[in-house]
Amino acid sequence: IGIGAACEDGELALRERGYLAFLALATKLAAVTTVLMQPFMMWWKPRRLAALDHGAATEVALREWQLGFGVLLVSALAVILAGPLFIAHLLPIGYVDAARYLPWMVVIVLLNELCTLCSLGAYARRTGVSVMAINAAGAAVALVLLLLLARPFGIAGALAAMIAGHGVRLT
């Protein structure tokens, strides 16, 4: 039984359940991407709305956004490259399969952080209703796809659902 396989009776195979532990480890390691972004986000979040109040707002906001995007890409790449080394050399051998999920979890974290970077215009409005609506739409898509994809495709379906949900938030 492979990563995305399920038992004939609809229950996840025992092996698939074991992969959930690997997914949990990959999720924790992928969160390092967010931690690496925090210095930039602590600097940028208070400045992003202030940048819109100035005459050259678009240029300033774009330069700062580009900087944040660069920090995000470098952070994600660092975790994708260093994570498997960490798993292979510092954890017991039984955890090595977690490395297969790490790139996918980093993509999910990257998309989440990218949504935060791209939400400048939504926060520039008088209320936060658009931010709530965007997040609700992404969550709804992720939940529906999770219900449709998780049982037949296992963890691969769950990962696809999360990626799609963040994709909706970016549109």
Name the features.
5 helices; 171 residues; disordered N terminus; single chain; mainly alpha
Total beta-strand segments: 0
Helix/strand/pairing category: mainly alpha
The overall pLDDT, averaged over residues, is 86
Number of helices: 5
- Strand share of the residues? under 5%
Quaternary state of the chains: single chain
Task: Give the uncertain stretches in residue-range form.
Answer: 1-7
Write down the Rg: 19 Å
Separation, N- and C-terminal Cα atoms: 36 Å
Task: Report helical residue fraction.
Answer: over 70%
| Overall form | flat
| Helix and strand sequence | HHHHH
Most strands sheet: none
What does this structure look like?
The protein is mainly alpha-helical and 171 residues long. 80% of the residues lie in helices and 0% in strands. The protein has five helices and no strands. The protein has helices at 14-52, 57-90, 102-118, 120-123, 129-170. Helix 1 (14-52) runs antiparallel to helix 2, helix 2 (57-90) runs antiparallel to helix 3 and helix 3 (102-118) crosses helix 5 (129-170). The longest helix has 42 residues, at 129-170.
